[in-house]
Amino acid sequence: ARSSCRALGVSRQSIELARPALRAKALGRLAARSRSCAPMAFILGRAFGSFRGAAPRLAASVAAARAPASLAPMLLSLYSPRVQPTALHLRMLSTGPSEIDYHALALNRLKPNPGAHKAHVRVGRGRGGGKGKTSGRGNKGAGARKGKKIPYAGFAGGQTPLHRRIPKRGFSNKRFERVFAELNLDTLARWIRNNRIEVVPGREIGLKDLQDSGAVSITMHHAGVKLLGNGADEWDIPISIAVSAASKTAIQAIERAGGSIRTVFHDKLGLRAELNPHKFAVLPRTSYPPPRLMQRYMDEEKRGYLSHLQKSIENPGFLEARTDQEPAEPQAV
Asked: Across-strand partners of 262?
C-alpha cells in the first residue's frame, strides 16, 4: 500500500486523516491517475478499507476525475464489502455528478419540508425571547386570566349582544320534523336467523318486537321505525311486518319473498302505548294521521294501513262489499 501510494504521489496518512469530502476527491484523483485495475483495487480494498460512509461522493469524485468506467464494480465492491454496486452508482460513474444530485442520497441531508415543523414558543422566559414577563397576555383583565377568554361567539362584553337585540323573524318546520329509527333488511335477517326475533306464521312483527329484541332503539324523539333496503338482494324470509315507513326497495324484497308489509301511523301517545302497554291501565284509542300525512298512509304503493279508504273513494262499492261480509249490528227500534 505504501509503495503504491508513493508511486502515485499521494500519502496514505493524508487521505486517512482528511475529511470525508476531501477523501472522496483524493480517491477520485487516485483512480484517474492509476493505469491498471490491480493497484487501484489493492489501494481501495486494503489501504483505505476502513473508510466508510461516502459511497455516493466517492462515485461522483471518480466520475469527475474521468476514471475508466470499467473500474466501477471493483471500486464499489472493494471499497466496502457490504456496498453492492447499483444502477444509480454506475450511472453516476458514467455520467458525472453534474447530471445527478448525489447529495439527495445522503442520509445526513434528509430534513422535513419547509414549514412542516414549527418551533415551539417558550413564554415567560425573559424579555429576550419576546414573550417574557406577562407572556404576551398584557396587564390584568379577562385576557390575562386562564380559561376561556370569550364566553361565546358574539359576546359583547356584558351588554346585550346583537343576536338578542334583534327580534326573531320567519318560521321553521324543524320542530315538526319526523325522525325515524332506521332498520335495514340485512340486520333484520341476521336477527331472525339468530332467533332473536321469532317468526310465527299468521303473526305480524310489530314495533315492540323490534324494540325488545334490540334490532332498533326507539327513543322519545322518534316517530317510529323505517325499514330500509340494505341487504334486499339476499332477503329470502317470508314475514309479515308492520312499521312506520318503508323504502320501495324494502317493500319489493319482502313481497318477492312471499311476505307482507304495512306502514302504520303512531302519534307520541300511541307509540308509547305500542312499546310499553303494561304502563297503561286502559290503552288509548289509535289516532288517525294528521291531514298532511293522511295521503301517505292511504297510498297503496307505500303499503299504508288506510289504503282501503282510498279504494273506497275510487270505488264507492268497495266498503259496501266489505261490510256485507261482516255480521250486521242490530238496529235500535
From this structure: 242
